[in-house]
Specification:
Mean pLDDT: 95
Shape: globular
Strand content: 25-35%
Number of domains: 2
CATH class of the largest domain: Alpha Beta
Structural class: alpha/beta
Helix content: 10-25%
CATH topology of the largest domain: Rossmann fold
Radius of gyration: 18 Å
Length: about 250
């Protein structure tokens, strides 16, 4: 099966190099348990390896072989206690009650295609969560919700040099549907070599945006109990200006 995120893997770390504000929060939650940590949508291991470096046993799950190849190499190079599986929360067998902290980081939950997949994902994670454990979901806040007014407009997400002397331009084009709560995001990578030749690659991301109370209801019917909803990585209140929406839950018997 073709890896739909192979193009993203090549530049993922470059584009996410400045995304560090969340690491401290996830370290604090992981520090509340002696049990293993589970990350769904682990990518190249940005968060998982930071947790492993702090002494946690980490399991990462991701559907992209290209992303996981990078994560596994880094874990092996640094002899970290991190294991990675290809798949999703609903396709990878997860040991029931094993994990003290379960994380769906930056926008990963948006990749659930519909309400049923969202519910199936939360049910699988609820089963994997230890009775004393907690689950966190990092979603776009109100300030970063769907914006149909910008449909079809190319937005430059990155422009800069690469280590080999080439130049990279990254463009985002989205098509948002408020009624369906969906975004089709096309990411175009234009790599201009020192020889002037431009090489292009593209990935397409299908995203579904859930509302706050929709998430709260899904947690409830999945067997999870809401602990809090926050608007930033300092756990401040959720407001209309919040760029993130952090949802934290535990098992109902926790």
């Amino acid at each position: 099966m073709t890896d739909p995120y192979a193009a993203d893997a090549s530049y993922y770390d470059l584009l996410h190099a400045r995304l560090e504000d969340d690491i401290g929060l996830w370290l604090s939650y992981a520090g509340r348990t002696q049990l293993p940590v589970l990350e769904i949508g682990t990518g190249t291991g940005r968060i998982a390896l930071a947790l492993a470096r702090s002494g946690h046993e980490v399991v990462g799950v991701d559907p992209s072989p290209a992303m996981l190849a990078i994560a596994r190499k880094r874990a092996d190079d640094d002899a970290l206690d991190a294991t990675f599986f290809e798949g999703t929360a609903t396709t990878v067998p997860l040991d029931q009650g094993r994990f003290g902290f379960v994380l769906l980081p930056f926008d990963v939950f948006l990749y659930c295609a519909d309400g049923q997949e969202q519910l199936d994902t939360l049910r699988a994670l609820a089963a994997a969560l230890h009775f004393s454990g907690q689950l966190a979901i990092d979603l776009p806040g109100p300030a970063l919700w769907l914006d149909p007014s910008a449909n079809g407009q190319p937005i430059m997400a990155f422009s800069g040099p690469l280590e080999d002397g080439a130049h990279l331009d990254v463009w985002h084009i989205h098509e948002d549907d408020l009624a369906a709560q969906t975004r089709t995001l096309r990411v175009s990578y234009e790599r201009t070599g020192q020889d002037g030749i431009v090489r292009r690659s593209q990935s397409v991301h299908q995203l579904r945006y859930p509302y706050r109370f929709e998430v709260e209801y899904l947690l409830h019917i999945a067997g999870l109990s809401l602990l809090g909803v926050y608007g930033d990585y300092d756990l401040g209140p959720l407001t209309n200006d919040s760029e993130r929406m952090i949802v934290v839950a535990r098992g109902m018997d926790g």
